Amino acid sequence: MVDDEADFLNAVSRRLEKRGIPPVLAGSGEDGLALLAETPMDVVVLDVKMPGMGGLEALRRIKDSWPDMEVILLTGNVSAADGVEGIKQGAFDYITKPIEIDHLAGKIRQAWDKRRRKQEQEEQRQFQEKMEQQMTAMDRLASLGTLSTGVAHEINNPLAMMREAAGYMRLVLEKEDMVQWPGKTGLAKGLEKIEKGIERIRRITHLLLGFVRPADHACARTDVKELVSESIELVTKEMQGKQIAVDRKMDDTEGVAWTDPYALRQVMINLLTNAVHAIQREGTITVSLSEAEGCLAIAVSDTGVGIPGENLNKIFEPFFSTKPSDKGTGLGLYVSRGIVERLDGRIGVKSAVGRGTTFTVEIPVCRRGDAVECVDENTCDEILTKIKEIGGDDEDTRKSAGG
Ligand SMILES: Nc1ncnc2c1ncn2[C@@H]1O[C@H](COP(=O)(O)OP(=O)(O)OP(=O)(O)O)[C@@H](O)[C@H]1O
Ligand SMILES: [Mg+2]
User: Fold this and answer.
1) Under CATH, which architecture does the 145-209 domain have?
2) How many CB atoms are located within 10 Å of the residue 22 CB?
3) Measuring from each residue's beta carbon to the nearest atom of ligand 1, which residues come in under 6 Å?
4) Could you tell me which CATH number the domain at 220-365 has?
5) Which residue has its alpha carbon closest to ligand 1 atom 11?
6) Response regulatory domain: which residues (predicted)?
7) Burial class (CB in 10 A: 0-12, 13-18, 19+), 141
8) How far is residue 355's CA from residue 377's CA, in Å, rounded to a whole number?
9) 85-129 confidence digits (pLDDT tens)
């Protein structure tokens, strides 16, 4: 409430306070503006006739800086025309002095109501906009799902035939009269590669067919070095048109973990794809592997554009993407974090704008929860050795793994 007559201000202030509207007071237009710049307010009650900056000038400045602010003008009896002028300039209303306190309180409430309604409408608009964006992303995801499911389905039939044929070849190869055959070893090796390949494709089609279904929890002895190399192979296509050097620093560890290799590879592909996208023309991607305290750490660094600080806590949210809509859905990191947490691991990020980004994935070398699932005898023995190696003295885990 801005008025140069101190007695009037104090008297009105006390009476407004009693009606549940405690005002903040200013003795001049200049003071009023300074106060508004410091503390956001909802409604301003402004005297028109003041020495120095007059009420209409103050109104103009308020509307310039805070267009949504509601302003009620107080005019003298003889200067009602100022009130009309004020309304033209965007004032909510004007009241002529001497004022009737309940009338003023009523006007303030109306002005405040109008403001609140505007805010609600704005919030609703923003919410709707966000929902629409999410819907588009969902639509895209749904069509991606449909497409990959269709392709996976098509692949399934020839794949089944290949599996059957490979199975038959295996049977023939294992027959007694083949024992002496000199070409057996070579053929067996080739067949093993085929079987492995088929198994891999089968996993992929299963993943795609169960696109939205959470993946199963199969764990296996995983050569993470090999897995990283495969993942790099898979993203080389994305690198076309850019000068990207890939640096591997993986000599410090054996790089073996008991984990879900397919899920981990999905994470690697997501991180590597992001790294490739972050490099505009030329740069380096470094993948390093290290092992400490029962954990394998994989770091994917790039010399790309970096992530601004204000985005760092948003990048793991679903549908957060700064890429054009045909390039990113904003699900890569969200899904990756979900996977890493399911593998009992952690994912972290460090970034500097203009210098680059490093994502770190830490997974346990041996997942305790999976000990029961990896059931054949050899794997059980290997698990037990691993548990001992990493200093596991957990009797329960050992018992359940052994059982
Ligand atoms: N290595 C990186 N360098 C710079 N920005 C990155 C990097 N990785 C992620 N980001 C930022 O985080 C955002 C979210 O990444 P995320 O992988 O979740 O989605 P996306 O890559 O946009 O889309 P997609 O679903 O295809 O992966 C990206 O849009 C980008 O702004
Ligand atoms: Mg991505």
Assistant:
1) Orthogonal Bundle (1.10)
2) 11
3) 270, 274-275, 278, 302, 304-307, 315, 320-323, 328-334, 357
4) 3.30.565.10
5) 315
6) 1-112
7) middle
8) 49
9) 899 999 999 999 889 999 999 999 999 999 999 888 888 888 888
